[in-house]
Amino acid sequence: MRHLITTDDFGIEEIEQLYKDAEDFLKAPPPKLLQNRLIITLFFENSTRTRSSFEIAAKRLGADVVHLDVAKSSTKKGETLYDTAANLNAMGPDAIIVRHAQSGTPYQISRHVDCAIFNAGDGAHAHPSQALLDLFTIRQHFGGDIEGKRIAIVGDIKNSRVANSNIRLLRRFGLKITLVAPPHFLPKTDLPTTIKLDDILDDVDIIMSLRTQTERHAHPIYGSLKDYASDYCITKERIGDRKILLLHPGPVHRNIDIDDAMLADPRCKVLEQVKNGVVVRMAALKKLILAND
Ligand code: NCD
Q1: Where are the domains of the chain?
Q2: Is the CB of 123 within 6 Å of ligand 1?
Q3: Phi and psi for 109 in degrees, rounded to 5?
Q4: Which of 151, 164, 182, 206 is the most exposed place for a label (fewest CB within 10 A)?
């Protein structure tokens, strides 16, 4: 039984194939490859993009989608998460898509079910489908030529599952990563790091800005996010006319992570990422569900 818990679950060639499928799905209405399949979404944390993206991806391929409303489910009556998962599994889904605040939950659930588990984000650990769509967007932008491209990941890297998954994935594809953040947002790493955003702007092809993960901070770190913004906000003034591809997984703290002018700038591909997210998730659903037959 195969799952998507981290990006390491897919080999490089499998990812190449995944992207071929995603490109095909962008070009033409997809065949109903997952007709009569059942996919359950189980989100214990808030989500705008990821849940709707997975659900739309599943429906585009003809699958039936059921969302378990966790706030009204029996986990609220004291049922363990694993019993909830085992009960859902007994209804015969082909995949369960899980988001949880606790790192490791999707992996644990995968041991209690016999369908594919897709990790839609677990704590600060991993968010593999986001990293896969980010890399897809980078490749699309550079026409596939990404070896050696330089990317700065900027913001609350230590608490970001998006950053974690991207660091692992982008390294495998030969990108050169620099981490840019105040010291308390930097993880222990062997990658180059800097606290000065302005110092690296002439040496990067891509900037991936991240939201400050305030919900994961035990104590407030900044008196105000405006203090953070003065050093790390990606503003048009800072970027000037440099040819930089600007990414952000969303939700964006507007004028904290990226300013209004850069969000409206054609170099900012945030909505392209969202669009690509649907086809990349379609390809991932197709791959694992058909592989598990
Ligand atoms: C991210 C997440 O939930 O991990 N959002 C997303 O899935 N697009 C990033 C975030 O919440 O900052």
Answers
A1: 7-127+274-291, 130-273
A2: no
A3: -60, -35
A4: 182
Ligand 1 centre to CA of 122 (Å) is 10
Could you say which architecture CATH assigns to the domain 7-127+274-291?
Answer: 3-Layer(aba) Sandwich (3.40)
pLDDT digits (tens, 9 = 90+) for 154-195: 999 999 999 999 999 999 999 999 999 999 999 999 999 999
Residue 77 has what pLDDT? 80
Instruction: Give, in order, the Cα–Cα distances in Å from 199 to each of 18, 193, 228.
Output: 36, 11, 17
Domains 7-127+274-291 and 130-273 share a fold: yes
Range 128-150 burial, b when 16+ CB lie within 10 A, else e: bbbbbbbbbbbbbbeeeebeebe
At the topology level, CATH places domain 130-273 in Rossmann fold (3.40.50)
SS3 label, residue 198: helix
Confidence bin at 215 (pLDDT 50/70/90): confident
Q: Which atom of ligand 1 is nearest to the CA of 211?
A: 12
Shortest-distance Cα residue to atom 7 of ligand 1: 50
pLDDT tens column, 121-157:
999 999 999 999 999 999 999 999 999 999 999 999 9
CA distance 262 to 250: 14
- Main-chain dihedrals φ then ψ at residue 252, nearest 5 degrees: -85, 130
277 Cβ contact partners less than 8 Å away, ≥ 6 residues apart? 49, 50, 53, 129, 130, 133
